[in-house]
Amino acid sequence: MKYSIEIGKIVEGALRHDKLKVMNYTNQLVSKLEEDNETRAANKFKKLLEAQSNTTLTAMGIASGTSVPVDSESRAVLADVVYPDENNIDVVLSKSNADKLNSFILSYKNADRLNSMGIGVSNTLLLYGPPGCGKTKCAYLVAKQLNLPLVVARLDSLISSYLGTTAKNIRSLFEYAQRTPCVLFLDEFDAIAKARDDSNELGELKRVVNSLLQNVDAMSGDSLLLAATNHEHLLDPAVWRRFDYKLEIELPDEDAIIKMIDLFTNGAGDLTEKEKREIANAFQGLSGADIEEILRKSLRNAIIHDKKFSKCNIYEELFVFKNIVPQSSNNEREILTAKALFLRKCNRKVFSLQVIADALGKSKTTIQKIIKEADET
């Protein structure tokens, strides 16, 4: 049935006397109807919303506001909300990762078809892998593709020093996400989902994990939960099993790095495809965040020093990032040797003597002598 998510949520809200949930998902339904040019139905629901806006559907004690919940002790908000029109983050992934993430997005987009066949929607995604590879950006991408607000949990507010408060905060945040069309995102997930058999941890953390499990289990199949961690080995096995999709965000491959070069240099320097391939080989093993930092710094330095931007600027910033040149060295020959040998070791087939010479602004003969001397020592 079409619009099954919105209709299901509206019915849930009505049965639980939750006016906020009914209003939020009715508005979501109106938006989808308008997108499908179902103007008559959209207008009908709009009139119902207007007619009911001043009536009381909620039970006593249930808040009617749409604000994000706060910590009961510090009054700090438990999450930041990024709305679709504010979500402008770009992410570049390897083809494998992009395909897997797209599969998760398509699953939710086709929720009506899946539900009609009794299959159900995959609504939980765990992102893991090295720091700086784009896990957080993936959460932004999912929310952007689904045109939903991204609710990013704030760990500094979520985790409390008061006994039992952290578990209450988790419950409040999940309840908010259940009542509002959104993507709930728990970053640094291991902070609240660490294995309960860790002898170094206090009983409070175990209670937090138990609360987390209960809230995930109670979450409606139409709500979306994303989590990210750099330390997947620390997660409690029971938490791990709660996620339908598990996606390891790997270091970017060569094609992904080339896309990053285009994205972060914004076409400056008129780099050829061959030059981009060479740079991508030198960047192998770096995270997306590292690559972005190097490219942005190289472009920034070229601008502030009024120099023409080229691949040489990128290589110089890479040498600094990798600490290729000893800071105490003032010997030009020693510095040149360190740079040439680094590039040569990246990939001998790609970094020929001529390519290294062009990258360092030296003659091929000079580079040949340097490589030969280093091989003989």
Folded structure, characterized:
With 377 residues, the chain is of the alpha/beta class. The chain has 3 domains: 60 residues, no CATH class; 182 residues, P-loop containing nucleotide triphosphate hydrolases (Rossmann fold, 3-Layer(aba) Sandwich), CATH 3.40.50.300; 123 residues, no CATH class. The chain is built from 17 helices and 6 strands. Strands 1-3-4-5-2-6 form a 6-stranded mixed beta sheet, sandwiched between helices. Strand 4, helix 9 and strand 5 form a beta-alpha-beta unit. The radius of gyration is 26 Å and the shape is elongated. The N and C termini lie far apart (74 Å). About 3% of the residues have low confidence.
